[in-house]
Amino acid sequence: MSDANDITRRQFVASTVSVLALADLPASATTDTAIHQSTKKDEIHQTTKKDETTMTTLTPYLLFNGNCGQAMEFYKSCFGGELSATKVKDSAAKDHMPAPQQDKIINARLRSGNLDISASDWMRPDETPTRGNTVCLYLSGGTFHELTTIFEKLSEGADVTDPLREMFFGFYGALNDKFGVRWMFQANKNA
User: CA dihedral defined by 124, 175, 59, 168, rounded to 10 degrees?
Assistant: First the structure.
């Protein structure tokens, strides 16, 4: 890429890792400035009675350049459903982010039937998002073993940008599969 403002896929991952971690925190860990708060019946992470394991979910994850709230409101007008959004200043990340970032959306989620879209504003003020680097497939929840199994299978012929490993918020990994599709993986430490 020739433009100094263009972002690489690796930089994309670095910019979203903390956002994704916060997106998957329990509701008690953040104060939700919900556009519309979700209910327990809508919880995406379900447990089975037999083994009490959390199910892995697949969600498209979108990044916006400061207009996440407006974009997600637009998608809600198209698809209906329930929309929740949390600003940086109302999240567990507030003490780790600079003042200009405080009013940005750190996590938004739209749920309507089988539709589930997660999103946030771009959190790297020194870089500009590039079209094509602002969409990925996000596998979250489940156990570390489940994500490891999927990660290893998708790694065949892939460019593994971030090996699946433990981080401060849980387990995280990312890769571009052999077809060029971007995948991110995240599980909580207790999973």
Answer: -60
